[in-house]
């Protein structure tokens, strides 16, 4: 006999025909019928329900019934159901709701994977007043708890519970008429559960409003009874938690939803359920004084914090007036026309709060740099204005698809931004300007994946928006240009045209370089009919003739990997990206390794090193470029420095990246290999740097102060501005060229660079930027000479063979300048660490002393890694290295490293050993072996067996006696069949000879 996996417990009372949809959904479960049982527990029905249940039990062996005297509430029937359950899990269901066909099967499989105590299936509801916790159910969570997930937002019991878990902890529903019995049960369960699983990609359970509205809620009740029960729930939370932020977060949910929300005048169209017969103010205040601490109050959104303040101050009239002034606010969403793009249906929208069509809606008052609730909301109610400046970031619009028949809801991908629009009224006498918060956005729906990764169901899907901010929270149906609800249907996308247009710029290009690029395009795995190649003198000319969904710009000599177009296009469509950056490679050309170290499907300038890659060798969505009017133009010259991107590329790519809703970085495949840097006349500094300043100004016009702008500025500082004035290049110039370059760069650094961008540079670059801004060329030359002397000194301490045959190399590394080690000040705890460089004049040392080390440059963050370099191919292989930092005042840092070396992962050949040291803001590399302690002999291996086993595959040696360390790798190969035959013959002959003798 199959063990029962799940018992579905259904309390019933005078269910009548309303139970039939649930019965039908239980009979359509994909879980085998012998694997679950249904237990109907009737609470003394007086209609034909008992007879109907008896008939069901007679017809279906897995259906059972229990009859109880009427208790008047579902608590006792549920408790009896748990007591009599045979299943390993219990699923609660109400008699007028319904389960999806795969609900039990999917939830039980998740329970088996995770050993779950509680399982929450995604729910839907066609109740007007019963909300669904979309944030909790927006994604699947295999394992979580009430401490690390917003479980407290879902307090209905229509979930699956491990039966033994409920019994072990004595978790039961209160019996008899007891409002909020669900919340008490769930609070007890969450506080005891070790593993809670949330199935967010399949709608398991649907609340269904009956035509007779009998399940729509409870009749008006006495608030004292309501809050007496809520007190028991709050006491349960307090008893199960320790004081602190975790407890405050749980209590804050009840304070916000069950207490503050029910005070004053309720918003139009959002009635309280249940309604109260009397004003609950006194009952709420009494409960708040007992449970709601300052920590609970301080963490509330602005709007609720104002209500809490008035409640605490015992000002019911002002609280009622404050809520009345907001009661007519509603959300309004206007959507633009829909269009197909990258396999998705897209539309732009704007959303704002309004009282009536065309009215001013929610307004904020701007006074200087601060924003407050408009006086129309607070005058005469509050003594002080309500500052919402820090809450501006909470204004957002979530987009949802809601099926007009099934009530299923799915969140939709969207990109939004907040605009504070100024009405035309003039500022007040005190300089106050009224502004309206408006959320602008674009949503994208993939009809084949929008339902939790599966296609949308047939039928109409209404586009809805949840607009929230500073505690305001309203829903609205998106309206089209005609004022009609915007609805979508699952349809196939229109026939696809060309996927990619590849523009190869040919101006001034050598024919062999163009041919190399075109040959790599001929070899693409993307079908030839899916892309076009446009040879054009200028990029803009090629862009104007492009017809592909994406456009890729290539320079002659750049060769694409054979799968580049196919992978980049698929990656862009999968992640709905406006820009796709593929990993580049190329000798002698700078490659931003940090950016492409991994895939980044949703990269941004503010958080990722996109500024390090401003070339145009990327996929750009053509519609996106057209929408923003992006062109290369003639605003910047086709020239760069050091083989890097030209200024025209930098200007175009920087603007595009700032405007892109999403940039995807494909770091797992080398998409293009650069050819040699093109030769061309150098652009004089007097022409190049004003053009660079114009490029920076164009980028600044696209973004305000912040992380994105600072990353761009730091990129230009490092490469185009500070790069030519540091290192060996500056001292090598004659006085005239040096002065011309310095003056041109100084104009940009002094007037065009963000101070916060400079502040994020390593300390020596900050000192250099300060010297440039102050016009101190001679000191800058001194600094450049000093910096070129900084290097890594690596000492080989030991080479030993472990018992398992693996070599272990031990070394010590120091960071030194020509005059001695780089020292660091060790100030008091209140002060900041700074660099104390040896060999510099006092004025320069003072500048270093004023510049604190960045966090990443602190001595304890220093590290060293052993790097092997293939002498033939130049490929590097980093060994896992354990490093220890030691510091002695006056002698600098000392980093000791130990690394194991085995042949696995190394090709046959010679590998040279180096140490790569990262410390105090520098990264320096030195060959290992020339420096060693006196007790380490010149001849290797020092303490290794003279006859190293051949199977080892790694032999250490010095390149010349007493010099650098290298390793010869020889991977043992299995004998070939011919070798085995020869060995067999030799062995046979030897045996024969032995036998004859």
Task: Count the E strands.
Answer: 41
Number of DSSP helices?
A: 28
What level of helicity do the residues show?
25-40%
Main β sheet profile: 11 strands, antiparallel
Q: How far is the first residue's CA from the last residue's CA?
A: 75 Å
Please state the CA-atom Rg, rounded to the nearest Å: 36 Å
Mean pLDDT: 88
The SS-based structural class is alpha+beta
Based on CA inertia axes, which overall geometry fits?
globular
The amount of beta strand, in percent, is 25-35%
Low-confidence stretches: 941-951
Provide structural commentary.
- It is a single chain.
- This protein is α+β, with helices and mostly antiparallel strands and 997 residues long.
- The protein contains 28 helices and 41 strands.
- Strands 10, 11, 12, 13, 14, 15, 16, 17, 18, 19 and 20 form an eleven-stranded antiparallel β-sheet that branches.
- The protein starts with 5 loop residues before the first strand and ends with a helix.
- The model is unreliable at 941-951 (pLDDT under 50).
Sequence-ordered SSE layout with sheet pairings:
Layout: E1 6-12, H1 20-27, E2 36-42, H2 49-59, E3 63-67, H3 75-84, E4 89-92, E5 98-99, H4 103-114, E6 118-125, H5 134-137, E7 141-144, E8 160-162, H6 163-169, H7 181-192, E9 196-207, H8 223-239, H9 245-259, H10 281-291, H11 294-298, H12 302-312, H13 316-326, E10 330-335, E11 339-341, E12 344-354, E13 364-367, E14 370-373, H14 375-378, E15 396-403, E16 409-421, E17 433-445, E18 460-469, E19 472-477, E20 487-489, E21 500-505, H15 511-522, E22 531-536, H16 539-545, E23 550-554, E24 559-560, H17 564-574, E25 579-585, E26 600-603, E27 619-621, H18 622-628, H19 647-659, E28 663-673, H20 685-701, H21 707-721, H22 729-732, H23 735-752, H24 755-759, H25 763-773, H26 777-788, E29 791-801, E30 807-817, E31 820-821, E32 823-824, E33 835-836, H27 842-850, E34 863-870, E35 876-878, E36 882-888, E37 892-901, E38 909-919, E39 922-927, E40 954-958, E41 965-969, H28 977-996
Parallel strand pairs: 1-2, 1-4, 2-3, 6-9, 21-22, 21-23, 25-28
Antiparallel strand pairs: 4-8, 5-9, 6-8, 7-9, 10-12, 11-12, 12-17, 13-14, 13-17, 15-16, 15-18, 16-17, 18-19, 18-20, 23-27, 24-28, 25-27, 26-28, 29-30, 30-31, 30-37, 32-33, 34-35, 34-38, 36-37, 38-39, 38-41, 40-41
């Amino acid at each position: 006999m199959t063990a029962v996996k799940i018992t579905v417990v259904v309390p019933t009372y005078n269910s009548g025909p309303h139970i039939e949809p649930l019965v039908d959904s239980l009979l359509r479960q994909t879980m085998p019928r012998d694997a679950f049982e249904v237990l109907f527990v009737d609470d003394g029905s007086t209609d034909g329900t008992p007879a109907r249940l008896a008939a069901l039990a007679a017809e279906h062996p897995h259906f059972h019934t229990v009859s109880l005297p009427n208790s008047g509430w579902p608590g006792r029937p549920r408790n009896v159901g748990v007591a009599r359950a045979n299943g390993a899990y219990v699923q609660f269901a109400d008699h007028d709701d319904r389960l999806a066909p795969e609900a039990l099967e999917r939830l039980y499989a998740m329970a088996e994977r995770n050993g779950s105590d509680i399982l929450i299936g995604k729910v839907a509801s066609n109740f007007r007043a019963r909300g669904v916790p979309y944030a909790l159910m927006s994604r699947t969570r295999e394992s979580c708890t009430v401490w690390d997930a917003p479980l407290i937002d879902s307090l209905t019991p229509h979930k699956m519970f491990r039966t033994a878990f409920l019994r072990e902890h004595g978790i039961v529903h209160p019996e008899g008429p007891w409002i909020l019995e669900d919340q008490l049960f769930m609070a007890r369960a969450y506080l005891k559960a070790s593993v809670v699983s949330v199935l967010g990609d399949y709608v398991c359970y649907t609340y269904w409003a009956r035509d007779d509205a009998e399940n729509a809620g409870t009749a008006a009740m006495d608030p004292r009874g309501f809050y007496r029960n809520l007190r028991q729930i709050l006491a349960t939370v307090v008893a199960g938690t320790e004081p602190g932020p975790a407890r405050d977060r749980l209590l804050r949910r009840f304070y916000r939803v069950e207490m503050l929300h029910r005070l004053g005048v309720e918003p139009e169209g959002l009635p309280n359920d249940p309604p109260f017969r009397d004003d609950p103010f006194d009952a709420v205040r009494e409960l708040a004084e007992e449970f709601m601490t300052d920590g609970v109050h301080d963490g509330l959104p602005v709007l609720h914090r104002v209500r809490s303040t008035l409640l605490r101050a015992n000002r019911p009239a002002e609280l009622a007036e404050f809520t009345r002034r907001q009661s007519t606010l509603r959300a309004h969403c206007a959507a633009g026309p829909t269009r197909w793009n990258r396999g998705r249906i897209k539309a732009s929208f704007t959303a704002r709060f309004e009282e009536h069509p065309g009215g001013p809606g929610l307004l904020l008052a701007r006074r200087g740099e601060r924003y407050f609730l408009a006086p129309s909301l607070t005058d005469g109610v509050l003594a002080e204005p309500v500052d919402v400046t820090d809450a501006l970031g909470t204004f957002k619009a979530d987009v949802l698809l809601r099926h007009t028949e099934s009530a299923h809801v799915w969140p939709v991908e969207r990109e939004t931004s907040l605009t504070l629009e100024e009405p035309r009224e003039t500022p007040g006498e005190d300089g106050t300007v009224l502004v309206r918060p408006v959320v602008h956005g674009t949503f994208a729906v993939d009809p084949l994946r929008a339902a939790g990764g599966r296609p949308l169901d047939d039928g109409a899907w209404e586009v809805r928006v949840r607009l929230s901010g500073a505690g305001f929270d309203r829903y609205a149906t998106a309206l089209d240009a005609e004022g009609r609800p915007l609805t979508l249907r699952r349809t196939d996308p229109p026939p696809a045209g060309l996927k990619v247009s590849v523009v190869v710029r040919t101006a001034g290009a050598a024919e062999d370089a163009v041919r190399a690029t075109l040959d790599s395009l001929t070899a693409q795995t993307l079908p030839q009919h899916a892309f076009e190649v446009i040879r054009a003198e200028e990029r803009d000319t090629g862009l104007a003739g492009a017809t592909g969904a994406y456009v890729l710009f290539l320079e002659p000599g750049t060769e694409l990997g054979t799968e580049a177009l196919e992978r980049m296009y698929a990656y862009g469509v999968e992640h709905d990206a406006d820009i796709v950056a593929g990993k580049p490679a190329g000798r002698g050309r700078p490659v931003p390794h940090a950016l492409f170290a991994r895939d980044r499907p949703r990269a941004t300038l503010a958080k990722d090193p996109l500024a390090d890659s401003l070339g145009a060798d990327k996929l750009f969505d053509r519609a996106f470029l057209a929408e923003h009017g992006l062109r290369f133009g003639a605003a910047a010259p086709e020239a760069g420095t050091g083989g890097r991107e030209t200024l025209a590329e930098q200007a175009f790519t920087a603007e595009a990246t700032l405007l892109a809703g999403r940039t995807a970085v494909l770091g797992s495949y080398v998409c293009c290999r650069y050819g040699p840097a093109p030769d061309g006349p150098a652009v004089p500094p007097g022409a190049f740097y004003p053009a660079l300043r114009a490029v920076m100004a164009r980028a600044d016009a696209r973004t305000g102060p912040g992380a994105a702008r600072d990353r761009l500025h730091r990129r230009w500082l490092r490469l185009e501005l500070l790069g030519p004035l540091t290192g060996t290049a500056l001292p090598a110039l004659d006085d005239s060229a040096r002065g011309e370059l310095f003056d041109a760069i100084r104009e940009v650094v002094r007037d065009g660079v963000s101070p916060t961008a400079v502040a994020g540079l390593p300390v020596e670059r900050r000192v250099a930027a300060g010297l440039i801004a102050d016009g101190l060329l001679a000191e800058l030359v001194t600094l450049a000479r000093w910096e070129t002397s900084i290097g890594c000194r690596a000492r080989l301490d030991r080479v030993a063979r472990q018992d398992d045959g693996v070599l272990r190399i031990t070394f010590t590394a120091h960071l030194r300048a020509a005059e001695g080690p780089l020292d660091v000040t060790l100030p008091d705890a209140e002060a900041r660490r700074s660099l104390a460089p040896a060999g510099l004049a006092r004025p320069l040392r003072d500048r270093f002393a004023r510049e604190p080390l960045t966090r990443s440059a602190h001595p304890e963050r220093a590290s060293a890694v052993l790097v092997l370099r293939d002498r033939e191919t130049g490929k590097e292989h980093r060994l896992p290295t354990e490093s220890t930092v030691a510091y002695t005042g006056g002698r600098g840092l000392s980093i000791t490293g130990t690394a194991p070396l085995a042949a696995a992962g190394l090709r046959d050949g010679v590998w040279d050993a180096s140490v790569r040291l990262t410390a105090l803001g520098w990264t320096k590399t030195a060959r290992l072996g020339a420096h060693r302690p006196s007790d380490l002999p010149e001849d290797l291996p020092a303490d290794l067996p003279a006859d190293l086993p051949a199977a080892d595959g790694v032999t250490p040696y010095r390149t010349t006696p007493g010099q650098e360390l290298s390793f010869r790798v020889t991977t043992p190969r299995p004998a070939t069949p011919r070798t085995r035959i020869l060995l067999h013959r030799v062995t046979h002959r030897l045996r024969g000879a032995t036998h004859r003798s």
